[in-house]
Amino acid sequence: MRAESLDPVLLRTFAAVADLGSFTAAASAEGYTQSAVSRQIAALEEVCGVELFARGARGVRPTPAGEYLLPHARALLERLADTARALDGLRRLDAGTLRLGAFPTATTALVPRALARFRARHPGVRPSLREGTTERLLPMLEAGDLDLAVVSTHKTPDLAAADLVHLLDDPLLVALPAGHRLAGRDRVPMAELADDPWIVADTPEAVAALRARCEAAGFVPETPLRASEWLSKLGLVAGGLGVTLVPALAAGAAATDGVVLRPVAPEPLRRTVYAAVARHARRFPPVTAFLDDLRAAAGPQPGSAATTSTSSSASG
Question: Cβ(134)–Cβ(164) under 8 Å?
Answer without folding.
Answer: no
